[in-house]
Design brief:
The chain has 86 residues and is mainly alpha-helical. It has a domain of 36 residues. It is built from three helices and no strands. It is elongated. This is Mannosidase beta like. Belongs to the UPF0239 family. Keywords: Membrane, Transmembrane, Transmembrane helix.
Length: 86
């Protein structure tokens, strides 16, 4: 064991532009996900104030939509009447 151990730090190449872009993009994506999760968990004060101010009135999107025709109202060909023989 007369040989000396090399304890110098390994050479790490500089990150490329693509690696930097990927790293910062992942950080931004993680921050965006945290903001979205917090928006779902924490109620917004604006929506909460509207619910307290107008408990009798609902302003849902369902009331604002126009009713769509049902599938059964699709134009059908008239059926021919069969002649009955007696």
């Amino acid at each position: 064991m007369s040989g000396e151990l090399d304890l110098s730090p390994p050479e790490v190449p500089e990150p490329t532009l693509l690696e930097n872009l990927l790293r910062y993009g992942l950080f931004l994506g993680a921050i965006f996900q945290l903001v979205c999760i917090l928006a779902v968990i924490l109620p917004s004060s604006k929506a909460h104030d509207q619910e307290e101010a107008e408990p009798g009135e609902t302003h849902g999107t369902e009331q604002m939509r126009k009713p769509k025709g049902s599938v059964s109202q699709v134009r059908q060909k008239p059926k021919k009447e069969s002649k009955k023989k007696r």
